[in-house]
Amino acid sequence: MSTASAGPEIERLITLLAKLPGLGPRSARRAALHLLGRRDNLMSPLADALSDAASKIQPCAQCANLDVTDPCIVCASPRRQEQTICVVETVGDLWALERAGAFKGRYHVLGGVLSALDGIRPEDLNIAKLIDRASDESIDEIVLALNATVDGQTTAHYLSDKLADCSVNVTSLARGVPVGGELDYLDDGTLMAAFKSRSTV
Length: 201
Prior knowledge:
- The chain is of the alpha/beta class.
- It folds into two domains: 8-56, Orthogonal Bundle (Helicase, Ruva Protein, domain 3); 66-200, Dna Topoisomerase Vi A Subunit, Chain: A, domain 2.
- Helices cover 42% and strands 13% of the residues.
- It has eight helices and seven strands, in the order αααββαβαβαβαβαβ.
- It has helices at 8-17, 25-36, 39-56, 73-76, 91-100, 127-134, 150-162, 188-196; strands at 58-59, 66-67, 81-88, 105-109, 141-144, 169-172, 199-200.
- The strands form two sheets. Strands 4-3-5-6-7 form a five-stranded mixed β-sheet. A two-stranded antiparallel ribbon has the order 1-2.
- α1 packs across α2 and α5 packs across α8 (188-196).
- It is elongated and about 65 Å long.
- The mean pLDDT is 90.
């Protein structure tokens, strides 16, 4: 990834940018040059935003959403339906559902899905906290809104088995969500339809 005639500071910037999703070495070099060419109106504000985010944003102790407050704005809202919890893979999926306005209850972010290939086991995910929350008598439905991938469906089956001992109705999104599809890339209408047509697992 070495760049000819570039100092160590530029090399470090390119190396770090290349670690972002969707950016390879070549795209990282272009991004670095773009930032360096717009120091005042882009690079400096971006540096300030990154510093603020690193110091102020934290995971919610209840649902693992990211926010500057704990509990997060969703968990703290008195307008949410407390009896329903929607389980998602990532914070990005939570944000996608919020954009669509498809869900008015609480959330639970797993932090990933089970994957034998990647060595991700149940203890690596935020599952124990989910079981604790589902054991609360005030909870009557757990919606498994996991991505329609092999690992997502494997995780959904595992969770439904683990939740079987809780007196809670376990549902999943309708198959309007395409196999292999990720929630963050679906349009709002598809997400709304999937929620309305969710079924018991």
